[in-house]
Design brief:
By secondary structure, the protein is of the alpha+beta class. The chain contains 24 helices and 15 strands. Helix 1 (about 30-45) runs antiparallel to helix 8, helix 17 (about 455-470) packs across helix 20 (about 515-530) and helix 17 (about 455-470) packs antiparallel against helix 21. It starts with 7 loop residues before the first strand and ends in a 5-residue tail after the last helix.
């Protein structure tokens, strides 16, 4: 394999752009490549939906800034234009004007006066003016959102004691309070308590208050909100079905098309059941309103897309894990009442991403487990993927950064990490996604959304703890997944170091921990630090380090916390969830934070990374037939974003 691939690209603000390689794509058949190509088109057509979901002004702001950015009459060399360029690149990256992790609103480095002058300098016909609207009126509307720090200040606010719906700027609710939303969906759930296949209430709609003060859902469908984008997605899904690998793929795509057409969540259930049953074929995809992290109540799905094909070599590892799923469930340290008696339909694969879209682009997950509905996982199983070429790109781009040398306590631990860490990171992701999310069960009649704003953090902690507990098990060595009984220590050290120290580099000074995965890591590491004496923080030459004295005791602490978090999930214990998250997962010691930020700044690294997609280029014969599809890796970040806005823009 060519080792000269350039994984790193441009850097701006706190972001480093990377590229991922489509390893083994050339080995796919022409039919499979065409299937990937059509699915990639369907993935890219959802982009405007995600922008709009993340803030009602995002699309108009993006369009206005792109018009200015591409106007040749404006001075591109002045400082304010360069600041506007960075701001626009951040907007592209985050699918809106809020940070993709912290959810705080971006602070522009250009002035209101400069923006106004630019808006008057460009051709007004190119601006997103509403009927009868003047340029000044558009400026007044957008400038309040961009420049007023207290207006729509945070995309997702989960602060305890606040109205997290009214104070969140995400575009899932309109003129609705938290209590109103909770009561609305609580009533729907009550009416379906005895339903063996309940819908995921609220997943695909905006909840609004109409003119007479009543709440109603505006459904996202081919005949409702986002119709223009959804119909484009549907067109390419239909084209994909013409070259699908097998009948099962066609069936679940037809079910997804039916769901997009109606917006009926029972149709979504049917799609999920068919999708999870389809385990044959090299190519698969995710397309739709899936993850609920972008909603403060954890109900509404952000649109995302991913096209994938199997990484056959790496899938050996995930198959070993999924084949032993029942053993892992039976031997977990949780109360037997909360264990599944029979683990059904767990399939796991390592895959290569072929195209990222929506909430999976440019920042993407390294592993995914779906469907999210607990009853589907219990009755039909789940699919888990580890995205091998994304993980590989992260690892290759980070070599020689000096990061580990700065934050790891000593040479002995560094050697341990160098020997095992890359493989153990992948294994922990496999355990987290393949088994962790699918493990355990709710007690009868427990509302799956009972933990409310704390649910996402608790669920991610549960899956991480499952992976951490088992990565140290002798079973891993017996299965050939770890080389020896020492390997797990590398994962324990890097995980706890991240949760206690190094993930703080991603947070601006004075802010709290907001994102669910970061909260989960802090919760686990801080809880383990506070209980027992397995590890401690020590000072050396004015620098803080993690010191782990007893790895076996640390594993027992992990087991205890896993048992408690599974109990909280299974019983729907909101108060205990709130107590754990509020006590261990949110606040930051400012002195420690200042130290970590200072040390990290000396490394000249970007704390966040995202990806530029490859361009899938068809090659044609003389009769206009596609004879091959070739990935092209040379498109720049700005060129790609402008092309996507032009080629796949549907809502602005």
């Amino acid at each position: 394999m060519n080792d000269n691939f350039n994984y790193s690209d441009e850097r701006f603000a706190d972001l480093q752009m990377l590229r991922y390689r489509l390893n083994g794509f050339e080995m796919l058949s022409l039919q499979q490549k065409k299937y990937v190509y059509c699915l990639a088109k369907a993935t890219l057509y959802g982009r405007d939906i995600t922008f709009d979901q993340f803030g009602e002004y995002n699309l108009r702001i993006r369009k206005t800034l792109e018009v200015i950015y591409t106007d040749e009459t404006i001075d591109h060399e002045c400082d304010e234009f360069k600041s506007l360029e960075v701001y626009l690149k951040k907007v592209w990256f985050s699918n809106g004007i809020y940070h993709h992790y912290g959810c705080e609103k971006f602070v522009p480095g250009f002035s209101e006066g400069f923006l106004k002058d630019c808006m008057h300098a460009v051709d007004s016909k190119r601006l997103p003016l509403e009927s009868g609207q003047t340029v000044d009126e558009l400026f007044d509307e957008l400038s309040a959102v961009i420049f007023n720090p207290s207006y729509k200040a945070k995309r997702v606010n989960k602060s305890d004691g606040e109205d997290i719906v009214a104070s969140s700027a995400c575009n899932f609710y309109k003129d609705v309070t938290q209590k109103e939303a909770e009561d609305f969906y609580g009533t729907q759930k009550e009416a379906h308590l005895n339903d063996s296949e309940p819908p995921s209430f609220g997943l695909n709609s905006t909840l609004v208050k109409n003119s007479d003060g009543k709440l109603q859902e505006v459904v996202w469908s081919a005949n409702g909100k986002y119709a223009k984008a959804i119909r484009k997605i549907m067109y390419w899904l239909k084209k994909a079905n013409e070259v699908a690998e097998n009948e099962q793929q066609k069936k679940y795509t037809n079910a997804l098309l039916a769901y997009y057409e109606t917006g009926n969540l029972k149709d979504f259930n049917e799609y999920c059941k068919l999708w999870v049953k389809c385990t044959e074929g090299q190519v698969d995809y995710i397309n739709g309103f899936i993850e609920v992290y972008g909603d403060p109540l954890g109900l509404k799905g952000s649109w995302e897309g991913l096209v994938e094909y199997v990484d056959k070599e790496a899938t050996r590892r995930t198959k070993l894990i999924s084949d032993n799923a029942q053993w892992f469930e039976d031997n977990s340290p949780v109360d037997p009442r909360f264990k599944k008696k029979e683990v059904k339909g767990v399939t796991a694969k390592a895959i290569c991403a072929a195209m990222l879209g929506g909430d999976e682009y440019p920042s993407t997950a390294i592993g995914i487990n779906l469907p999210n509905a607990d009853w589907i996982r219990a009755e039909y199983g789940s699919k888990s993927i580890t995205i091998s070429n994304i993980t590989d790109a992260y690892n290759k781009a980070s070599k020689g950064s000096g990061f580990k040398e700065e934050f790891v306590i000593d040479e002995q631990t560094l050697k341990l990490i160098d020997n095992y860490s890359d493989a153990l990171d992948c294994l922990h992701t496999d355990l987290h996604e393949c088994l962790g999310h699918g493990s355990g069960q709710l007690l009868p009649n427990v509302d799956p959304d009972a933990l409310k704003a704390y649910g996402n953090t608790i669920e991610e902690a549960r899956a991480d703890l499952f992976g951490l507990y088992y990565i140290a098990d002798r079973k891993m060595v017996e299965l050939g997944l770890t080389p020896d009984d020492e390997a797990y220590k590398a994962q324990y050290y890097t995980y706890m170091m991240n949760g206690l120290l190094t993930q703080l580099v991603r947070i601006e000074r004075g802010n709290q921990i907001e994102e669910a995965h970061m909260r989960n890591r802090a919760l686990i590491a801080r809880w383990c630090l506070a209980h027992g004496n397995a590890m401690c923080l020590v000072k050396s030459n004015g620098k803080t380090y993690l010191k782990i004295d007893d790895y076996e005791q640390l594993r027992q602490l992990i087991a205890s916390l896993l048992a408690e978090i599974q109990r909280i999930k299974s019983e729907g214990d909101f108060e205990s969830a709130r107590d754990l998250v509020e006590s261990y997962a949110i606040t930051i010691d400012q002195e420690l934070h200042d130290e970590i930020l200072k040390r990290y700044s000396q490394l000249n690294l970007a704390p966040y990374k995202g990806f530029i997609n490859p361009v899938l280029q068809p090659e044609y014969d003389g009769d206009g037939n596609i004879v091959d599809i070739i990935p092209y890796y040379g498109e720049s970040y700005s060129a790609q974003m402008l092309r996507y806005s032009s080629e796949y823009g549907t809502l602005i």
